[in-house]
């Protein structure tokens, strides 16, 4: 069975999926076709139901819950860090400042729009945001992915999205950023098997991190290398990315509550109710 697996080209997504691509995981009778696209394109394609399995921004999920189940694995959360709202050093931001965001459906964009309701968003590819701020096309921009680790010295952080999240959440919870969704039209037994394979891929990647990183660098599959790559992966692609924890589920619930409170979703949802039901396999084994 061929499964379309869509993910972003940033280092943590590549890292979590390429143990499968390199044949280090038993994929049973599945053949995974990798598709690499920027996160907002993935979000837009998920709204159309394009791919069998896709990386998404968590902020999008309530809008696709009828068509996609939420996977437990390949998740990215911030723990005291996350995307950064940057501006030119010394620049004062007005209440209606123009801000470059990486896409309408990204989690960071959702939080920034809520926190700065008078800001004027401009959506663009995340790779163009830093330059847009430097050239004065926008007053500020939110850096995501690897760009948070190494940006132009003429820029400074105006606000950490982590801090925005803590203020909106009202409690100390990990910052939900992105995860995976699987199309509900797939048979349940297939969905369970695919989730297990993807989970094993993340676990194997972490067990063989040094070897995998070397291969990714040699094949020019990542945009950063050496110490920056190791630092970035420790942030967003650790063993904690393998399976949603109770605390991470609580953070997702709070994110969805906040979105509903601000009119972005039709109702609040509980993340656990939209996961693939493992009890199906347990019942079959009785």
TrEMBL record:
GO MF assignments: carbon-carbon lyase activity
Coiled-coil intervals: none
UniProt key word Transport: no
UniProt pathway annotation: Quinol/quinone metabolism; menaquinone biosynthesis
Catalytic residues (positions): 145 (proton acceptor)
Keywords: Lyase, Menaquinone biosynthesis
Family: Belongs to the MqnA/MqnD family. MqnD subfamily.
Function: Catalyzes the conversion of cyclic dehypoxanthine futalosine (cyclic DHFL) into 1,4-dihydroxy-6-naphthoate, a step in the biosynthesis of menaquinone (MK, vitamin K2).
Name the UniProt record assigns to this protein: 1,4-dihydroxy-6-naphtoate synthase
UniProt source species: Nitratifractor salsuginis (strain DSM 16511 / JCM 12458 / E9I37-1)
